[in-house]
Structure formats: C-alpha cells, structure tokens
Amino acid sequence: MFGAGILKGLGVTLKEFIGTYVDDVKRIPSRYVGGRAEIEQRIGSEQTGLFTIQYPEERRKLPERFRYIPMHVYDAETGENRCTACGICAKVCPPQCIWIVRAKDENGKPITRPAEFCIDTTICMNCGLCAEFCPFDAIKMNHDFEIAAHERMPYLVFDLQALRVPTTYYAQIRPTDWAEEEAIRAAKEAEKAAKEAAKAARAAAKAAQAAQAETVAAAPAKRTPEEEIERLKAEAAARRAAQVTETAEETVTPATAAPAAPTAPAQRTPEEIERLKAEAAARRAAKAGGEAAPVPIEVAPLPAAAPESVAPVVEAAPPTTAGAQRTPEEIERLKAEAAARRAAKAAQG
Predict the structure, then answer these.
(1) pTM for the full model?
(2) H or E segment to which residue 326 belongs
(3) CB 61 within 8 A of CB 37
(4) What confidence tens digit (pLDDT) does each residue in 143-154 have?
C-alpha cells in the first residue's frame, strides 16, 4: 500500500539484473564469449540472476529420460534390425499412429522382419508406451525435437529409414538405460549358456551311464563261492549221469525185431503196464544186489493192428538182500540206469 509493493517488486528486478552480471563475471570466460553449443541448466544449480539461452546457437542440455518421438534401434555391429514385426507397439499405441507391414520370403511366407514401419508424428503424443512394451528393445524414445515442417506429408510421417538409429546413438543419449539393459542382456545370455552347459553335462552323464551299463552287461557275472561250488557239483553230476548212460547202452543188447510197418504205436493194457513195472523193479533189485545170474523174462507180444514181434529181453534177476544200505552215489547210478533202460525199451517198442 502507498507504493510499497511497487518498490518491493522493482527491488527484486534490480537484484536479479545485477546478479546476472555478477554470475557472468564469476564464470570467466563469459558464456557469451564465443558461445557454447550445449548449456546445462538444472533446478537447484548455483546459477543466480536471469538466464537466457541464445537459441538456436545455444541449446539446453536435455535430461537422459527426455522423450519426444520414437526411434527404431538396430545393431551397429551387424546392421540387423531388432524389430521382429510382432505388432505389439501398434496395439498399445493410444492414438494409433504406428503402422507395420511384415516382410515375406520368396515363397510368400511371413518372416520376422518389418517391410514397412511408419509413425505419424503429428498424431504421436510422446507417451513412450511403445518403448515400454517392446519385448526386443527395438523402439526407444528419441531426443530429437526439431522436426518442424511446412507440410505434413511426407515430412511429418516417418518411415523405417527415417526412424532407424544405431545402438551407439542410443548408448550416447541414454547411457544409464543402455548400461542397465546390457547388464540384463548379459545375465540372460549367461543363464542360457549355463542351461546349455547343464543340458550337455546331463546328456554326457546319461551316455556314460549307458556305456557303463553295457560294459557291466557284457562282463561275466561274478559268482559267490557257494554258487561256484553248486555249479561244479551240477557239472560233476551231469558228467556222472552221462557216463552211466553210456555204460548202460553198452551193456544192454537191443532185441532184434522185424521192421514194423509205419503205423500208430500200439496201446498197452493195464495188466501189461503192471507187468513192465514189476520187471523194471526186479532189474533194479538185481543191479543193487550186484549178482550176475541171468534170469530170462519173457515178454508177451503187444496187441496191435499191424503185426509186430518183440524180442525177449534177458535181464539178470538175482535175489535181493533185505536191509542193504546204499550210498547216494549208488542211488544216482541206479536212477540213471533205470532211465537208460526205459529209453531203450521205448525205442524198441
């Protein structure tokens, strides 16, 4: 009131006017001498007074997270686009300013490369959703805001060639984001390599186990002492049985009989079967007694459709001695002899 506010405002203006020159003198050489292409001015800096950037000769240094229109990043080493034409950026774009046409091979089959990629910068709202949702880090937000033109077409509709920038440019304008993304990419590559190495190790271990199993199967099985003893006993018993069979075949004289006609074998009556059993028992008793007195035993002819004659078999039938104890070897020998006789009789009949 009474002009005090006006005087206070004029004092603030005078303070800022003088502070501008004081700050400029402190920063000798002055920034106005020769000029600078880029000036860093941030909130909370030590600068005082008024500050004017002489655009376009001077430009303010932009923050790293500054975003304007999208840019299409490609690998600087190989020159290949990171974009696979998946279409996610076009789907999430709020104003729908992105158009993508997928490339095709010589057979007309779609491939993971964009044939056309266009962005209408007059519609783009610089939200950065396309860069956030891109799974291949193919779209990033550019710092280039000087795109003014007199006509919309074709200067403000950027195609793939106008949007392409190398990874080195992206690393220059966004070094922090580039370092973080490279660290994540290196971790994924290391994890993938570790999985491949583990898979190869499992395959090698499986192959080694299979080879070891084949080696064990091919090698002869080791027997315990008890199993080896039982095997030797069985082999000895088999050899003894073979010797007894050979001896029985040499001692038993086959009966001569007329060659029978090729007819079906004759059926024996129950009485004949009982008689043959008694004869076999008598022969076993004779063998057990060890006497060699021959006792002729007549065998009646078998009833059959075709005429057959059975030669009499002469066997030794000495009287048996009651209460005689036989050794296990003798019992085995008698069993083998009986088996040999039954086989010979079956061959004759």
Answers:
(1) 0.50
(2) none
(3) no
(4) 998 888 888 888
